[in-house]
Each structure stands twice: as structure tokens, then as C-alpha cells.
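Q: C-alpha cells for this one, please.
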Amino acid sequence: MVRRNTVLHDAGRGHPAEDSDDPTGEQMARTGPTGVAPAGAVTAAPLPLEGEAGVIDLRHLGPDGAPIAPVDGAAIAQALRTDVGDERETGRPAPHRLGPLSWYARRGKVDFFLGRMPKDGIILDVGCADNWFKRAAADRGWSNVVGLDLEPSADIVGDLRSWRGLGLRPHSIDAIVAFEVVEHGDFSEPLHDLLKPDGQLIITTPVPRMDPVCRLLEAFRLLQRRTSPHTHLVDVRRFPRFSVVERHVRAGVSQWAILRPQ
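A: Here is the predicted structure, written as C-alpha cells:
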């Protein structure tokens, strides 16, 4: 195991790629209470929490124009009040720090992506934070996830772009998970160079033009606050050196995709 204090995020100026709404019409079906709205949804401006038993108006219009049930403000208020003692006891981030929508989205990502990943070989979780995805995968029978990040809780601590010095071999990884990572820097080359030719890049990242909405949700503490600027917002259909296998837009603001190296 290699431990290094290096920089994961790109501090340089960004070069956002061209953005679009999902002109191909690739959208998700309704997913239920995963913390994100159904595919193809048009998001209404979020309103402040209206008291302990109030309702945050995060209603959306689905593809058929029918409104989706609003999020219960009392449930979110409870998540925001979660005792930090739970975090100290379990060693895992409390939902109030993560943001309740981010917490629910994590569950949705595991449900949606994990079954599409190999149980053999190596899955590298880039930007793994506290290794939450590795634990969730292990609970479901995937014991092959390795986390990489700057944080000491990662299995490999270091800069993705310095992977050669971290004991990793070129084209040796079967699948790479990059949840909310690529908007922080230029990582397409190391991601490409680490993946096997038939490997998978599992990626989530904001729809570029909807990033201000994400910032607003962060301000309301509904989403986890970004750890560094989004300097490299990109439409994943134009992600360098990769082609799209699947792409879905969730809640109108987030791209969930599976890519292959070219």
C-alpha cells in the first residue's frame, strides 16, 4: 500500500466542454425515493424548508407531464439533525454532513451501477473519500474494490495522475468508478491508461449548464459541498478518449454513465 500526500484535484483553469440537455432522449425511468428525480425531469426551483413538518418543494415534471411527489421536509430535517456522535461511533460520514440528497444518491448509485460491474478482477474507486462504495459493494458480495484518494482512509493515497508511482500498472484495471470526480480536473488520460481495453469507466458528474443548481442545493445543505471548484465540467458524450455505452440524466442535473476506452 502506498501512502502519499499529493494533490488529486487540478488547480488550473478549466476548459468546460460543450453542454446540452440530453438531445438523444436517453433518460431513466422513475426510480422512487433515491434522492434524485426521475429521468427527463424539469426541476423546479427549490424552496426553503417550511418548518419541522414542512415540505421542500422539489417536485418535478416527468416525461408525461405528471408531477412527482415532493420530498418530505421533515425527513430531510431529521437527516440534518443526525448526531455527529453517530459518525464518531461508526467512522462513517453522518448524513447531515454529506447532505441528504447526496446520501440518497449514493444508495441509488450502488443500486444502479454495482450489478453491471465485474465480481472478478479489480474495481478502482477514484476519489473514494471514506471508502463508502467499497463497503457497500462488500455488503453485496463484491470484494474486489480498491479505493484511491488523498484521504488516509483510502487504500491507495495519492494523485490519480501520478499512478505510475503508486504501484499501479498500465491497462490493468477492469472497472474504474469516478463519482463526482472528473469535473474537478483533467483526468481522462490516466483513466484511459489504467483501464483494460475492454474495461468500464463508471462516471457521475453534473450536467454542465445545471451546475449552478447543484451549487444552490449545496447552499441549502441538501447536496454535499464541493471540495474544489468544478473547473472541468463536461458532457460525458464528449469525454476525451472514451465512448459512451450508456448515459442517463438524473433529476435533470446529473449525468450517470458507463464509458469504454477508445
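A few notes: Confidence is low (pLDDT under 50) at residues 1-72, 79-91. Residues 100-113 form the longest helix (14 residues).
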